[in-house]
Amino acid sequence: MNIAQLPVVVVGCGVAGLATALAAAPRPVLLIGRQAVGQDCASALAQGGIAAAIGAGDSPAEHARDTLTAGAGHNHPDAVRYLVDHAVVAVRWLQTLGVEFDCDGEGLSLGREGGHHLHRILHAGGDASGAALVAALHRAARRAAHIQWQPACEVDGLLLRGERVAGVRVGDRDGQKNVLECSEVVLATGGIGALFAATTNPIGADGNGLALAMAAGAPAQDLEFMQFHPTALAVASCGALPLITEALRGAGAVLYDDSGARVMAGRHPLADLAPRDLVARQVWQVLQAGGHAWLDATTVPGDWQRRFPTVDAICKRHGIDPRTQRIPVTPAAHFHMGGIAVDFDGRTAIRGLYAVGEAACNGVHGANRLASNSLLEGLVFGRRLGRLLADVRLGACRSGSHWLVERGQSATESTLAQLRALSWQALGPVRDGATMQQALVHIDSDAALRTSWQGELVTRMLEAALRRRRNLGAHYRLDTAKQKAAQPIPLRLL
């Protein structure tokens, strides 16, 4: 079969995967997801919106400045420039797909979140923005003649021929495995939050695509940088913790401890709207001291059913009226700034293998992601990668031997529970070298942990965190906190 007749396989049905698949037209695309669209991706759970310099007095340069500051200067400036320069274009594209962004009397309603000096966050359906975006992209993908949908299955192997990708192995719910040939593979499999005991991520955000790419020999980058959202609802849960959107703090909500003192008072010029890594560490320290952290949103004005319907419903399901009662909160694993090392076009070190969205790391987020840049990243770089794939001109038939690279053995549920607790303890918002070393020894001494791909991934994260001895962004080591923290790279204004 000629290569040009084979499809591009896109693994992942969140914003990044759907944007890539749509932009790849007219190339045939096979879209693969573990679950039905929206049921197993962090995109659909996103309560934050999309950051874009669309308001009066704002500019891409200001958006870039906030992105670089939040990322502790560890960002790649060219990636940041591309992101902010294409933000408004991405918003307009979504509007053509039917996304109705919230408006006020003056036009588009712009909110503010942590790390932003200006109001530049667009929402759709209040705090249900992620679901609105995924629904619109899903409708467009269902209508697209070039996209074929594979029944729900899991990709657990890559077929290689020569020095490039030639296919994927998938397993369905009945345990049947099949190899599907393709021309290229795009991993848009999301993050790794589900490997932590406390997380806002769905169960599928377990680093499966990252583990598969590393098994095939693709380098990873910045694995130590995990962002913790400061305000997940502090309730007992056997799955993801409900997220309490940062937009509430942008609307005036304030964090308090048990004594009624403001958690962020005197900690940062932006106080409760400081970058997430700072706020998460302060909340963490309150909890570690044996207290509770509370988000007081009782003074937030406006129509909650319009502005914050998701938070309102979540809180009331747990017996809390957020308009009259303070909300108990905790930090939770939220977004991985690291991932499969890629260039701006999503290329990995393996020919024919690409990655995009949270599974990838092109340096745009640096050491700490700026709020509401994640959906934007998936859209902007997904569309860029899709256009690249649409223009690829492939050669003649493939020849030569081929082999299958497997992701590896999966951990059992009991082993996973142990690993999640270990990750939370050793790789949480505040870390120390001794605890991380103990975690490595524990994994290595337990055959069930050591031989699972999840255990291997957490091992790689621990090793990366141990190598980075100085604090930077979301990576904060208590054992080096008394030393002079790493100074952020001077901002290179765009």
Structure write-up:
32% of the residues lie in helices and 18% in strands. The protein is of the alpha/beta class and 494 residues long. The protein has a five-stranded parallel β-sheet with strand order 8-2-1-12-19, with helices on both faces. A four-stranded antiparallel β-sheet has the order 11-10-9-21, with helices on one face. A four-stranded antiparallel β-sheet has the order 14-17-16-15, with helices on one face. The longest helix has 18 residues. The C terminus is likely disordered. The chain folds into three domains: 290 residues, FAD/NAD(P)-binding domain; 105 residues, Alpha-Beta Complex (Flavocytochrome C3, Chain A, domain 1); 71 residues, Up-down Bundle (Methane Monooxygenase Hydroxylase, Chain G, domain 1). α1 links the parallel β1 and β2. The chain contains 16 helices and 21 strands. The protein is globular and about 70 Å long. α1 runs parallel beside α6 and α13 packs antiparallel against α14.
Tell me the number of strands.
Answer: 21
Termini Cα gap: 47 Å
Write the CATH homologous superfamily of the largest domain: FAD/NAD(P)-binding domain
Total of domains: 3
Number of helices: 16
Strand order of the largest sheet: 8-2-1-12-19
Strand fraction equals: 15-25%
